[in-house]
Amino acid sequence: MVSASGRGKPSSSASSIVADRSVGYHDLKIDGCALTFGAPTGRLIKSCPFTVGSHRWRIWFYPVSSLPGYVSLYLVLDEIVAKSVTGQVQFSVVLEKRALFFLKKEKKERENLLVGMTRPGGGSVTIRCDVTVFNGFRAAAAAAAPPPKSKSKLAPVPPSELQKHLGDLLQSGRGADVVFELDGGERFPAHRCVLSARSAAVSAELFGAGAKEGDAANGAAGVVRVEGVGAGAFRALLRYAYTDALPEVERGEENWVYADLLAAADRFSSERLKVMCANKLCVGIDAGTVKNTLALAEWHRCNGLKEACLDFLAHPANLRAAIGTHGL
């Protein structure tokens, strides 16, 4: 029978064995004249002493080794010690100011370059000696494992419905305190606070001349007359101001709808809407639309749309088709 004290979760722990080491390096610069092939075999040149891991070291350099065309390098412990020292050494060679150039050379070119360095004034070589001294091993506590994630599932956050709610507010006209009247008599109720918050340029254009300061305070909806804008384009402009989205357009009507909306966006200084309409018109450029689209881009200063039209006409086949369609 298992006791109550043994029914709990087992305890856990971890540790690791790590090497206690010291790391350092020493740079040994050798003038080119020191690499003399005529030097006697076995000639020894010692570096200045340096310290890594509380021990003193030297580099022993033999300009001419027993193998022709080679030099010899050794790392030597330059002190008397009571017990052996374990270490690791790595030598690397860097040609000063010409390291990358040297590495890209072919083998024969590198040999010629090294031969040139043996002459006085022929350059220098820096030998880097990386030293690692192992002082022993020690135990270290391992990092604690992260706690297990909770199995409880968080409820997903529903998507924002702000655009839908504002769109419904515009469509219903609830609380509208301004009415826009177009040339054809169409009227569009809206909300001053929304339009003012969306764009200072739109607010100044729409309320600067025709609005009455006391209308909102008296509960009456002031009338602002808007000239030179079609009903479809103005309706889309208002809906963009409320929802930040382009209107849904039926197939075949995209070109004239986005062209009218681009003109309205340019008039009321809505640069983002202007760019969105221009991008839609870029997609619909063909032999039948390029003439009007190019004129629209020129009139409303849409450089990207203009370049797209010119790129289309740059192809001879497209140019011939446009000339045949419009009689240019």
UniProtKB/TrEMBL annotation:
PROSITE patterns: BTB. Residues 176-250 form the BTB domain. InterPro entries: BACK_BPM_SPOP (IPR056423), BPM1-6 (IPR045005), BTB/POZ_dom (IPR000210), MATH/TRAF_dom (IPR002083), SKP1/BTB/POZ_sf (IPR011333), TRAF-like (IPR008974). SUPFAM superfamilies: POZ domain, TRAF domain-like. Pathway: Protein modification; protein ubiquitination. SMART domains: BTB (SM00225). It holds the Pfam family BACK_BPM_SPOP. Belongs to the Tdpoz family. PANTHER family: BTB DOMAIN-CONTAINING PROTEIN, BTB/POZ AND MATH DOMAIN-CONTAINING PROTEIN 1. This is BTB domain-containing protein. The lineage of its organism: Eukaryota, Viridiplantae, Streptophyta, Embryophyta, Tracheophyta.
